[in-house]
Amino acid sequence: MLLKEKESHQSPAASLDAPPLSDAARPETIAIIGAMDVEIEKLLPDIQNRQEVTLRGHIYHTGTLCGQNVVVTRSGVGKVNAAVTTTELIKEFHVDSLIFTGIAGGVSPQVSPSDVVISTALVQHDVDLTTFGLQPGLLNGFSDRHFYADQRLINIAVLAAHEVVGEDNVHLGIIATGDQFMADRQGVRNVYEEYQAMAVEMEGAAVAQVAFLYNKPLVVIRTISDKADGTAHLDYHQMKASTAHNSSGITLKMLAMMKD
Q: Where in this chain does the entry annotate a coiled-coil region (predicted)?
């Protein structure tokens, strides 16, 4: 039976001031992030003992989902929102691993709307320090422009996605991130040719960079809502609800598998 939503009567500071237990002394807590409400709303009714904590305008839903301790939140769109939210999840909620779930535009010719792309690595396609002799997408101080997903989480995500959408509709590959909604063919072609990306979106690589800095395992799961070309705006609005539903289903399957 689903429990009725509960509001926390503690202040955020009061609920978060206690020092964290050591990793060995506490069960794993998994962060689940979506950029928009539609990407997490199907998960919220199933969270047991759900409470809400609000920090800097973001609502974090805590409780258990499929037997796992979780913190579920909407980050907001874009790299800064995603990075701030990920930092809060790690520093304030002491999460052990991160799953970013939602929708994206298809870049590779191999993917079609409703297909699922599971990240092997993520890159920021809007980073350009080539004037200083760096590769496109490479940040100063880093030796690699990619931020890599965790292999264990990738394996679980693949198994879960196969069950939800079928093996033929699941792809592994690079996801490109930038602070723009890509909707032109030339831009898509440039991202594909430079990064060999399967999909493009606006948050994943920022989450992955923070996860890398804090040494937290991460995977990004994106269901393709559009082809990120001249028809992207129309396709996106037609597809976002159904594709977000697929992403939520995969997340729930993952949590059940991680518990087992």
A: none
Domains in the chain, please, with CATH? 27-259 (3.40.50.1580)
CA distance 73 to 87: 13
Q: Secondary structure of the chain in the HEC alphabet? A: CCCCCCCCCCCHHHHHCCCCCCHHHCCCEEEEEECCHHHCCCCHHHCEEEEEEEECCEEEEEEEECCEEEEEEECCCCHHHHHHHHHHHHHCCCCCEEEEEEEEEECCCCCCCCCEEEEEEEEECCCCCHHHCCCCCCCCCCCCCCEECCHHHHHHHHHHHHHHHCHHHEEEEEEEECCCCCCCHHHHHHHHHHHCEEEEECCHHHHHHHHHHCCCCEEEEEEEEECCCCCHHHHHHHHHHHHHHHHHHHHHHHHHHHHC
Whether the CB-CB separation of 204 and 223 falls below 8 Å is answered with no
What positions carry a catalytic annotation?
39, 226
The torsion region of residue 160 among left (phi > 0), alpha (psi -120 to 50) and beta comes to alpha
Enter the tokens of residue 188.
């898509």
Low-confidence ranges of the chain (pLDDT < 70): 1-26, 226-244, 260
| Predicted pLDDT of residue 73 | 95
